[in-house]
Amino acid sequence: MKKFEISVLDLAPVKQNKTIHDTFNDSLDLARAVEKLDYIRFWLAEHHNITSIASSATSVLIGFIANGTEKIRVGSGGIMLPNHSSLVIAEQFGTLESLFPNRIDLGVGRAPGTDGLTANALGRNPQNINQHFPKQIQELQQYFSAENSDSLVRAIPGEGCDIPIYILGSSTDSAWLAAEMGLPYAFAGHFAPQMMETAFEIYHQNYQPSKEFPEPFTIACVNGIAAETDEEARKLSTTLFQAFVNLIRNDRKPYAPPVNDMDEIWNQMEKMHVEKMLKYSFIGSKETVKKEIEQFQKRFQVNEMMITSPIYDHQARIKSYEIIRSAVDELNDPLL
């Protein structure tokens, strides 16, 4: 089995009976905790018009997290690039990299991160996104390059900054693009598992080495909910299940506390749909999660697993990351 790193995707979850201020403080506390556990990076995701997710101003929140930590890499998983001007993102991440040198990642995706009406309010043009998205990545690379100093349009800050760009995807489209551009590729297996295996195959088989990334680099984002016992972890996971039921019902309320019986909440069709979307969710005790992660890694051989743990209780969430860290350490070093 190929050794791998682990990292964190934080959606800045807003919980029932909690404020968004509480959410941000919990995110910072989590980042500090996983930094001590030697997680390699902490990413935040751009979403809009969803009352359960508070990371809409992603660049601002990255700055808050980076300022409150010391060494962990902090970045976007991702910035939904067609929602923005390439120049503005180059300036924002150039500012972040200048404030926190060698710690900032820029993950970019093409999806809106929201519903159609809100996407329209963001100024997206759905007619040209597939053509415009690759061009925007090239624009970012140009703005970050030292050679852009001769250009009439420059990103200040940003120019000359070493900011790695990661392409995000939940289908096969971005796999082709990441391979063609010689960039790392992160797949959203935590909610769209169906195409992950095919996407990784496309990426590896078609990878064109670049100066920055001579070898392909893959990240799989998955759900991880660990506790002392399988029973406790399954109960904690009902917060995640409820959130996905709410997505299906287009009911965007904050995250709910765990429940004893999901059958009182979802119907059979909803249950089947949620379980399909959450196929790559590692839920259980340390031994259970360790076994599931091992099976996953033997199949996909990724460079990194990015864990998102939508657990209602903050301390239980931190504990989950501690257990997963221990399980992965044992997998990477069987002598432990």
Give a description of the structure.
This protein has 336 residues and is an alpha/beta fold. 43% of the residues lie in helices and 15% in strands. The chain contains twelve helices and nine strands. The chain has helices spanning 20-36, 58-67, 86-99, 116-121, 129-144, 173-181, 196-205, 230-236, 238-248, 268-277, 286-300, 314-332; strands spanning 5-10, 41-44, 73-80, 104-109, 165-169, 185-187, 218-226, 281-284, 304-308. Strands 1-2-3-4-5-6-7-9 form an eight-stranded parallel β-barrel, surrounded by eight helices. Helix 3 (86-99) packs parallel to helix 5 (129-144). It is globular, with a radius of gyration of 19 Å. The protein starts with a strand and ends with a helix. The relative contact order is 0.14. The model has no long low-confidence stretch (mean pLDDT 95).
Task: Summarize this structure briefly.
The protein has twelve helices and nine strands. The protein is of the alpha/beta class and 336 residues long. The longest helix has 19 residues, at 314-332.
What is the topological layout?
Elements (H helix, E strand, L loop, with lengths): L4 E6 L9 H17 L4 E4 L13 H10 L5 E8 L5 H14 L4 E6 L6 H6 L7 H16 L20 E5 L3 H9 L3 E3 L8 H10 L12 E9 L3 H7 L1 H11 L19 H10 L3 E4 L1 H15 L3 E5 L5 H19 L4
* Low-pLDDT regions: none
Helical segment count = 12
Helical fraction equals 40-55%
What is the residue-averaged pLDDT?
A: 95
Question: How large is the share of residues in beta strands?
Answer: 5-15%
Strand order in the sheet with the most strands: 1-2-3-4-5-6-7-9
- What does the largest sheet look like? 8 strands, parallel, barrel
Q: Based on DSSP secondary structure assignment, what is the total number of beta strands? A: 9
The value of Rg in angstroms is 19 Å
Question: What class do helices, strands and sheet pairing give?
Answer: alpha/beta
Quaternary structure annotation: single chain
Cα-to-Cα separation, first versus last residue: 16 Å
Give the topology string: H per helix, E per strand. EHEHEHEHHEHEHEHHHEHEH
Task: Choose one word for the global shape.
Answer: globular
